[in-house]
Amino acid sequence: MTIDMKFFNVYYFCHLANESMGEFNYARTNAEFTERQFEIEPEDFPKVSVLREYCSWLIDRVFYEQANSISNSGEVADFNPINWINQAILKYKGINVSINNDFTIDYEDFLETYNEYISYLDKFEDGLFYDVLYDIATEVEYILFQNRDFLLRFNEQQAVAFEDNPRKRVYIPEWVKRAVLFRDKGCCVFCKKDLTGLYSLLEDNEKHFDHIVSLNEGGLNDVCNIQLSCKDCNLKKSDNSKTSTLYQSAY
Fold first, then answer.
1. Helical spans, DSSP H, in the chain
2. Could you tell me the keywords of this UniProt record (predicted)?
3. Mean pLDDT, the chain, integer
4. Are 80 and 70 in contact (CB under 8 A)?
5. CB neighbour list of residue 49: distance below 8 Å, 6 or more residues apart
6. Contact between 121 and 78 (Cβ < 8 Å)
7. What pLDDT shows up at residue 132?
8. What is the mean pLDDT of residues 31-37?
9. What 3-state DSSP class applies to 23?
10. pLDDT tens-digit profile of 153-175?
11. Domains of the chain: residue spans and CATH
12. Is a pLDDT exceeding 70 seen at residue 26?
């Protein structure tokens, strides 16, 4: 599978996610996602990862909070979310949304205007707003998935929901293994031992796909919580939550 990356302000959202995750000032806000996400028992290794769900939630919340800020002040400060979304729709969907003739923007009640605008977009294509939100979230996830330090902090946040009810170890699907092998370039994330030559020769129980935040500490069975480790490093890590910020240089 390939992603046709458009890079519409994705680094802005990546920065917000990375800077806020694990920070005390944002703990309550990020906890809102965790509490909402795990109201029901989570699926093991869902194709739509917990990280992508978070990215969708974050982008939606940023747009909403900005609309609320404009509504409270009556003037546009940093950015106009309606304009941003219109630009994103044009970039991702090739649809030019014109709001000049039949949609009125009321800056004094901008939050209500924003909610009406989301419904108004269905005129162009059913579920257009959430489709574009998902497109942006997919790109944000792609970038954040490369950042294991962020993944450690992110999964520690999610683990709070399962500290007293740890997830059970389950079979890791092949698509998850491929994703982790690709990201970690076939090397142990700790000692950088090249495992690509060994991978095809090892039995399944000898392949060390390790949970970044251990199941014992509430870690999830999710692609964003798995890393590649050699046997020795995995045994040293034991049930601790740990990763590495060492990466292979591109050149």
1. 10-20, 27-37, 50-73, 81-93, 110-120, 128-144, 148-159, 174-183, 196-199, 231-237
2. Endonuclease, Hydrolase, Nuclease
3. 89
4. yes
5. 141, 222, 223, 224
6. no
7. 96
8. 92
9. coil
10. 999 999 999 999 999 999 999 99
11. 1-144 (no CATH), 165-251 (3.40.1800)
12. yes
Cα distance between residue 42 and residue 145, in whole Å = 20
Q: Give the list of residues 6+ apart from residue 144 with CB closer than 8 angstroms, or none.
A: 14, 17, 18, 51, 55, 150, 151, 154
- Given a contact cutoff of 8 angstroms between Cβ atoms, the answer to whether 208 and 198 are in contact is no
Residue 187: strand pairing partners: 194
Distance CA 82, CA 222 (A): 33
Contacts of 214 (CB under 8 A, 6+ apart): 239, 240, 241
Question: What whole-number distance in Å separates Cα of residue 111 and Cα of residue 140?
Answer: 25
**Nearest residue to 113 via CA among 125, 101, 104, 124:** 104
Q: What is the DSSP letter of 52?
A: H
Look up residue 220 and give its DSSP letter. -
Q: How far is CA 110 from the centre of its chain?
A: 28
The string of DSSP codes covering 227-242 is: EE--HHHHHHHTT---
Q: What pLDDT sits at residue 22?
A: 85
